[in-house]
Fold this protein.
Amino acid sequence: MTAREDQLFEGRTGKWEVVIGLEVHAQVVSKSKLFSGAATEFGAEPNTQVSPVDAGFPGMLPVINQVCVEQAIRTGLGLNAQINMVSVFDRKNYFYADLPNGYQISQFTQPIVGKGTILLDLAHDETREVGITRLHLEQDAGKSLHDQHPTLSFIDLNRAGVALMEIVSEPDMRSAEEAGAYLKKLRSILRYLGTCDGNMEEGSMRCDCNVSVRRVGDPLGTRCEIKNVNSIRFVQQAIEYEARRQIEIIEDGGTIRQETRLYDSGRGITRSMRSKEEAHDYRYFPDPDLLPLVLDPVVVARIKASLPELPDPKRQRFVNAFKLSPYDAGVLVAEQAIADYFEQVATGRDPKLAANWVTGALFGALNRLGLGIEESPISAETLGGLLDLILDNTISSNTAKDVFADMVETGKDAATIVEEKGLRQVTDTGAIEAAIDAVIAAQADKVAEYRSGKDKLFGFFVGQVMKATGGKANPVLLNDLLRQKLAP
Ligand code: ADP
Ligand code: MG
């Protein structure tokens, strides 16, 4: 995969291409952990969701959680990936205080999901396909808390043993923009599938960014891995910074050392954490407490049959059925609840009008109120009611904006507000003509100016007549009649 010309970095000695591969740790939506029955709820009191298995007590045995396995299969299917009917759990050995067993149960050579693809939605309706290398199941570690006491560190094992899906991409991305698009699309798919809530602030989706640079046409350069970045914006900033850093080193005659780095979002820089560990450092071996995981084809087929319509096909359907631009369709399908809401408003009405109201007024109001679509003060049905009044000419689009604001404020439906406030637009030509005649009589000077060629005054007259009708004249009728009457 090659970069677009506008994605290349300009160095002192020429142009550079940045190459990015992402490893995402996505916490599996499941009530209990991967190998124990302890709960997984976020924000519980420290060490209240820990079973003897999670605490690494001697003699405890892990038991695989079928829900987590099914969620991994579901995710694999959603990523158009190969489902491996046999996979193996391995021990990845390392020492850390928040890892009581001294090893993490993960999958190494035989992951549950193999190669797949994901389609990025880029600017100007461009798309690009990025390869998924694999998805494997593994346990999360606990949390070390170093900021609770001046001299002590604390350990919270609530997270220890929670199921993660590690989703590894091919080194197929060529800019921070593409990395951002990848994470947004992946998060959207995971949420549609209901396999990960995608909440980066709560750490249920974390990203390691692998970044290297090369001159166009050269083989891949040496990568650095930036660990555990917890927002899409930070991922993008880290990539930009890291690419520049590597280019400068190489242009100064240096070489890139493969290492693990951290992104310091306060200072906007990456810094070295440790030299890169190799797989053999972890002494991986199959966990003797667990049999190979053999999937039942019937179960895989059942999960496949239960998949929802995912963002890509939904977007295509919105383009075809509703004649939306790919961009608008993309915005509307990013979240399933928004897509459902839009579809309810659009069906049987003017879809373009529906799209404009959902992405314009509705999103604006939700943003201002800090609400998600699920908590919208205006249901799809009530917004549809407002659109009906525009479409049957009861009110103008302008009046509709005021009615909408009232709906948000009062919770009343559009028809009620229009009746209560007497906002029905005047479509009676006689009434509009009378208003125009009155304005023309009162503004003789301006009429003369207009007739002698000052076209710009037309808007002034529209405003005057609108005012005279209390803003209720049908704007199309008003424009037509006014133009006729003002003609010399
Ligand atoms: P590790 O466990 O050592 O991090 P993985 O194979 O799990 O190795 O992940 C490697 C990640 O690095 C993948 O996302 C891959 O796409 C990416 N990657 C590999 N080579 C490069 C490179 N030269 N530049 C950027 N990213 C790379
Ligand atoms: Mg890695």
In short: The first strand starts at residue 9 and ends at 10. DSSP finds 15 helices and 16 strands in the chain.
